[in-house]
Amino acid sequence: MDMRDRISTALKQAMRDKAPHRLSTLRLINAAIKDREIAARGGDGDGAISDSEILAILGKMVKQRQESVRAYEEGGRLDLAEGERAEIAVIEEFLPRQLSDKEIAEAIEQEIADSGATSIRDMGKVIAALKARYTGQMDFGVVGPMVKDRLS
User: Fold this and answer.
1) Which residue in 72, 101, 122, 152 could disulfide with 80, CB within 3.0 to 4.6 Å?
2) Per the structure, how many domains does the chain have?
3) Distance CA 129, CA 150 (A)
């Protein structure tokens, strides 16, 4: 079952269960996917997006909500922060398991060995290969500096 079908099935189930918070989050996910499809349609494409693009959308949504949680907590709005955490939990159901720091380090070492990267100039090649293989499983904001340190 592809990502779009999983999300659609979960949306229908949330309607049946009368779960308003889950339903609104799933609708937000659908809206973000449709926005990306519309943008893709503009450039001669058919508008279909892949599961890896959907995973990237979901990862971005989680990151946005994590930033909102921090902002709400700093502002003393714990009720709003809790709502954002609930949305994160729903979105993360569709993301693959996140790799541990040790697994990320091993993946970086493996990709450097596979690509034959030797200098910082090869960093883009290594990151691109990691993104292709591990989309949604690692935070590339953290991975970038790790690859840079390893190649320096």
Assistant:
1) 72
2) 2
3) 16
Q: Which residue has the higher pLDDT, 70 or 150?
A: 70
Residue with tokens 């979105």: 91
**Residues spanned by the domain of 81:** 3-92
| 98-121 average pLDDT score | 86
CA dist 146 to 49, 98, 102, 113, 121, Å? 30, 16, 12, 15, 14
- Looking up residue 127, the CATH number of its domain turns out to be 1.10.10.410
Cα-Cα-Cα-Cα dihedral sign, residues 49, 52, 56, 58: positive
CA–CA dist 49, 4 (Å, integer): 10
**Chain segment 19-76, per-residue pLDDT in tens:** 999 999 999 999 999 998 888 887 666 667 888 888 889 988 998 999 999 999 999 9
Q: Quote the CA–CA distance of 126 and 110 in Å, as a whole number.
A: 10
* End position of a domain, from candidates 45, 61, 92: 92
Tell me the backbone φ, ψ of residue 97, rounded to 5 degrees. -60, 135
pTM above threshold 0.70: yes
